[in-house]
Amino acid sequence: MEDYPTTLLEFESRFNTESACRDYLAKLKWPDGFRCPRCHHNKAWLRNNGLYECDRCGFQASVIAGTIFQDTKKPLTLWFRAMWHVTSQKYGANAIGLQRILGFGSYRTAWTWLHKIRRAMVRPGRDNLSGIIQCDETYIGGVRSGKRGRGAEGKSLVLIAAQEDRKHIGRIRLSIIPDASADSLEKAIKNMVEGGSVIRTDAWLGYKGLKGIGYRHEIVHQEAQIEKALLPHCHRVASLLKRWLLGIHQGAVSHEHLEYYLDEFTFRFNRRTSHYRGKLFYRLVQQAVAVEPVPVVKLVKNIRGLKAQL
User: How much is the pTM?
Assistant: First the structure.
């Protein structure tokens, strides 16, 4: 049963202590009850230090071990506030805003927390898209000199897969690809779309081999879309994505970390119809205890002076 606060007042009342946050994480980490990581016994005692001690082997398990919260020195109440802030903002949050809301002394802390939270926006083992899927590529990056079109230089190439839900856009997936070759496109599509689905694309030769790898391929020709976008769902997603990156992050997104901004956009887009922002919070916390921890040294990749601060 999904259990989440529906309003800010409810959130503040419910998660104002460390024990309340820890208990919530425990229910999400062990939905069927405690399981010892060592002997798989199902009974444990909660010690005063917040650890769960196995009743059989005595192993002490932490509810934050193996999660994005692992090794944190900050209270869980602060982490919960950060995740509530991120999910309650309709169009997203940036590091400067998070720093101000939580009163962090440094921009780096807020930046690091946001990237850890973005890691939790991809559910391990999530289902691929299925049905009728539009696929097209778009370039992400500022105006730079160089080639145009599918050979553009100095930009990141992103493959968009958008599910058709009658006239509406269903779920989406976004993937950075090295180029628009058949090998790159086919590999990305296999990671995003179930076999046997209908893939609609333009006439680019890179999509020519989709039938050979188990998809039904339909080419949309320009003549059939004289006054409309060739692949309207993909064009719409590309437009919203670029507007979001510019509006929330002022376009200041490094290519090294673009993948995680795409994950955030996908997480928000696929849950855009949720009536309660609290449900997004619930999903985020649920996935936060399922993904592996990410050390700070892996987050920072020569990004605008952040590495020098470590």
Answer: 0.86
Strand pairing of 132-140 and 60-61?
unpaired
Is 118 in contact with 260 (CB distance < 8 Å)? yes
Give all strands of the β-sheet with 44-46 in edge-to-edge order. 44-46, 52-54, 60-61
Angle at 155 between CA 268 and CA 260, to 5 degrees: 30
First to last CA, the chain: 42
Spans of all domains in the chain: 8-31+64-119, 132-245
How many Cα atoms occupy the beta-carbon half-sphere of 61 within 13 Å?
Answer: 24
Average pLDDT (94-118) is 92
Comparing 132-136, 153-157, 175-179, which segment has the lowest mean pLDDT? 153-157
Strands (E), 71-229: 132-140, 156-165, 168-177, 198-201, 216-219
What's the pLDDT tens digit per position in 206-240? 999 999 999 999 999 876 555 566 899 999 999 99
Q: What is the DSSP string of 60-111?
A: EE-TTTTSTTTT--S-HHHHHHHHHHHHHSTT---HHHHHHHHT-S-HHHHH
Q: Which residue shows structure tokens 């694309």? A: 201
CATH of domain 132-245: 3.30.420.10
Look-up: residue for tokens 């946001």? 114
Phi first, then psi: what are they for 156, rounded to 5°? -100, 130
How far is the C-alpha of 299 from the C-alpha of 284, rounded, in Å?
Answer: 19
Angle between helices 107-119 and 95-102 (to 10 degrees): 110
Give the position of tokens 């320009």.
222
Radius of gyration over alpha carbons of the chain, in Å?
Answer: 22
Nearest Cα residue to 119 out of 308, 290, 4, 303:
290
- Buried/exposed code over 123-155 (b: 16+ C-beta within 10 A; e: otherwise): eeeeebbeebbbbbbbbbbeeeeeeeeeeeeeb
Q: Which helix or strand (DSSP H or E) is residue 188 part of?
A: helix 182-192
